[in-house]
Amino acid sequence: MLFGRRKRMDLARLPLEELRFSTEDLFVLLNGYDGCAVVVNIYRLRLDRIAEVKPERNEWRRAVVERYAPSGWVDGEANPNPELGPAAWCGPRAGAGT
C-alpha cells in the first residue's frame, strides 16, 4: 500500500467559511489562555500544562504563522487579519448580554 503525501492547499484561495483551524490554532488566534480558556475544549487541551509552559507564545504561534501568514490570514506575529479576527472571536459582542 502506498501512502501519498497530502497536497498543500493554497489557503489564500479559500473563503473564510472553508478555513479549518485546530484547537491550538484557535487558542493562539484568541490570545491564549487569558483570551479563551473558557472557549476551548478542555478535553483536548490540558489547561494546567498550558498555564505552565505557555506554548501559545512559542511553538503554537510559530505553527500558526507558518501555516496562515503566507496566505495573508495572519501577520508575522499571528494576529488575524481584519476579516478573520471578528470571525474567530466567539465571545460576547458589544450590545450582547448573557
Describe this structure in words.
With 98 residues, this protein is mostly helical. Helix content is 35%, strand content 0%. It is built from five helices and no strands. Helix 1 packs across helix 4 (59-68). Mean pLDDT is 75; it is low at 94-98.
Summarize the structure.
The chain is an all-alpha fold and 98 residues long. The protein has helices at residues 23-29, 32-36, 47-53, 59-68, 84-88. Helices cover 35% and strands 0% of the residues.
Mean pLDDT score, rounded?
75
Rg over alpha carbons:
15 Å
Helix-strand sequence: HHHHH
Major β-sheet profile: none
* Helix percentage: 25-40%
What characteristics describe this protein?
98 residues, mainly alpha, 35% helix, disordered C terminus
